[in-house]
TrEMBL record:
It comes from the Eukaryota. Its cofactor is FAD. This is FAD-binding PCMH-type domain-containing protein. Residues 57-230 form the FAD-binding PCMH-type domain. Belongs to the oxygen-dependent FAD-linked oxidoreductase family. SUPFAM superfamilies: FAD-binding/transporter-associated domain-like. Coiled coil: none annotated. Keywords: FAD, Flavoprotein, Oxidoreductase, Signal.
């Protein structure tokens, strides 16, 4: 053990009175953490307001205490305390992780990284350093003002580091690759309590592992990334289009036609959803083209010819892609505290008959369960040329060759629908699996899109596991970081 406070002999807490656990932890932390850190007990009225809330209230962790550290040493001390007292803990960045495995944190300690939210940009060096909890919303404006761009994701409230540690996909990934490909170094508190810099030259073994399996080894307190000069003067075409459900085959045929030839600057996002005012089941689709409007229009002309019933095609600064494209759905995607059963899968080909089956299935779900009418089923397709220009064995991330992903979010408000929500998710995934193009029998999924029941072979692959398991034993031998789609963990998912 390498803990800074290991000279203290801590008593094992044997009580099963969890409130007592929280009180004891609070009194310890108030004494031993830096004076600017904060502790909150769930029973306190300020708890909900002052601690980071989760996007998904379903399968959520439960805590006896939430701690908001302000220094790296605080984080070392919290991990040491949790370890010695055998209390599970979870670091919280943006709070958008939704895996069903998160509910394995019961009566745990939340390490709320909310104070690790700094952003600094060095335009001359083309670098950006962010704290472990900074959101995409916190970097887009400052980067834009500095004349720089970055491969953000699709939701402005997601934690940058939380997304990166699994890989980090988004519309500018066609131009710049995955977020892990922009990463230059991180500062990390490991599962042994050590504070280390991790980069190509410092702990290079772990450097490989954190890029794709990062949440398994520790808590990142800050991360430094490469950023890029503007493409197309920082402007992109964003085309929001709405279509009737009956047009589904043509829409997916359009996506399929780009297989193997999606321009780097072009990204496709097609979602099926339900809205009474649009006649029930319908499509909303977004196309980003980082180039002149007329070239972007030419790319989507086949879709315009189909006659979308609604359109909004504009040039926007890249910084607004998350917040103002997709008819402004970002504001909804940032709402916390609802129930979600989320499912995903990698696609290595676009099989139109499969997609038609999925649409027809969702159409019946919307009809049968009014409680699932906020559910949506999205396909995202980002060019993989730059992503694939990095060799597979350069990072732990195993799925550079996926050409698209589906993501199904079954949102619901009445918990009595939990079993049915899981059934919908499993059914949709079963529709996709036979034609996904995966070469193994594992449920291959981008770890950050995982439902939680895919297992380590599905998140990390057989190819990567030997090296990852060796890293786990070295940097987190006590398996403290085992609550989010983790290596070597056994989960009882699905429970519904
Ligand atoms: C609405 C929505 C849109 C999304 N869009 C995209 C997208 O476009 N592209 C994409 O790639 N992904 C996307 N995701 C998935 C997203 O990348 C993951 O959910 C990610 O894990 C969220 O990170 P977070 O910090 O917000 O969440 P949290 O729940 O806070 O964290 C998720 C996991 O990461 C760990 N973690 C977070 N911060 C740190 C840190 N600093 N150090 C160590 N571990 C940490 C947590 O402990 C937890 O295990 C989306 C998710 C949602 C809900
Ligand atoms: C939160 O509220 C409680 C009273 O409910 C108060 O004692 C405590 O100091 C507050 N915590 C912080 C960090 O402000
Ligand atoms: C630690 O906690 C786990 C889960 O609560 C329990 O199963 C285990 O026995 C505990 N170990 C010790 C040494 O108390
Ligand atoms: C970071 O972005 C979030 C929105 O996702 C916002 O609520 C918060 O105030 C921002 N933090 C800072 C320090 O700007
Ligand atoms: C990590 O690197 C920074 C700057 O590069 C340095 O100041 C710091 O001391 C290093 N920390 C550790 C734990 O090695
Ligand atoms: C999807 O397209 C197929 C093929 O054109 C069609 O048969 C089906 O009815 C459509 N689905 C819906 C929900 O409109
Ligand atoms: C059209 O899109 C732009 C940019 O995304 C947005 O600012 C505007 O509000 C949208 N207009 C409508 C009518 O939705
Ligand atoms: C939730 O669903 C149950 C079972 O269908 C129903 O009895 C209950 O009234 C619903 N609750 C709410 C708040 O709608």
């Amino acid at each position: 053990m390498n803990f800074p406070l290991s000279i203290f002999t801590l008593l094992f807490v044997v009580t099963t009175v969890f409130a007592q656990l929280g009180l004891e932890a609070a009194s310890y932390f108030r004494k031993h953490l830096s004076s600017t850190s904060e502790v909150y007990l769930p029973s306190e009225s300020n708890y909900t307001l002052e601690t980071t809330q989760r996007w998904n209230a379903f399968s959520a962790p439960t805590y006896v205490i939430s701690v908001k550290p302000t220094t790296d040493l605080d984080i070392q001390n919290i991990i040491e305390y949790a370890y010695h007292n055998n209390i599970s803990f979870l670091g919280t960045g943006g709070g958008h992780g939704y895996s069903a495995t998160l509910d394995t944190v019961r009566n745990g300690i939340e390490i709320d990284l909310g104070h690790f939210n700094t952003v600094s940009i060095d335009p001359n060096a083309n670098t950006m350093t962010v704290g472990g909890s900074a959101h995409f919303a916190n970097i887009t404006g400052p980067l834009y003002d500095a004349g720089k761009e970055f491969q953000v994701g699709s939701c402005s409230c997601v934690g940058i580091v939380g997304a990166t540690l699994g890989g980090g996909v988004g519309p500018y990934g066609g131009l710049h690759g995955l977020q892990i490909d922009a990463l230059q170094s991180v500062r990390l508190v490991t599962g042994t309590g050590a504070l280390i810099n991790v980069s190509a030259t410092s702990h290079p073994d772990l450097w490989w592992g954190i890029r794709g399996a990062g949440f398994n080894f520790g808590i990142v307190t800050s991360a430094t990334y490469q950023v890029y000069d503007f493409t197309n003067n920082g402007q992109a075409m964003s085309a929001d289009l709405r279509f009737r459900a009956s047009q589904n085959a043509s829409l997916y045929e359009f996506a399929r036609s780009f297989t193997g030839k999606l321009p780097d600057a072009f990204s496709i996002d097609i979602a099926i959803a339900y809205e009474e005012v649009f006649g029930g089941t319908y499509f909303f689709a977004n196309f980003i083209y980082v180039g002149p409007m007329e070239d972007g229009i030419a790319l989507i002309q086949p879709l315009l010819d189909l006659g979308p019933f609604d359109r909004n095609i504009t040039m926007i600064p890249w910084k607004d892609i998350e917040t103002s494209s997709k008819f402004g759905v970002d504001a909804l995607a940032c709402i916390k505290g609802n129930f979600h059963s989320v499912w995903g899968l990698n696609l290595y080909q676009i099989d139109v008959p499969t997609l038609i089956n999925a649409v027809n299935y969702m159409d019946t779900v919307y009809a049968q369960y009014p409680g699932f009418r906020q559910a949506f089923l999205a396909i995202d397709m980002y060019a993989s040329r730059v992503t694939e220009s990095v060799p597979d064995d350069a990072t732990a991330y195993p799925y550079r060759n996926a050409i698209a992903r589906f993501l199904l979010d079954v949102g619901f408000t009445n918990s009595s629908l939990a079993t049915a929500a899981s059934q919908v998710g499993r059914d949709v995934r079963s529709i996709f699996i036979p034609t996904s193009g995966a070469k193994t029998d594992n449920i291959e999924v981008y770890v950050n899109y995982g439902h939680g029941d895919e297992g380590q072979l599905g998140w990390y692959t057989e190819r990567k596991l030997p090296r990852l398991n060796a890293l786990k034993n070295k940097y987190d031998p006590s398996k403290l970081f085992s609550h989010y789609n983790a290596l070597e963990a056994t989960y009882n998912v699905p429970k519904y």
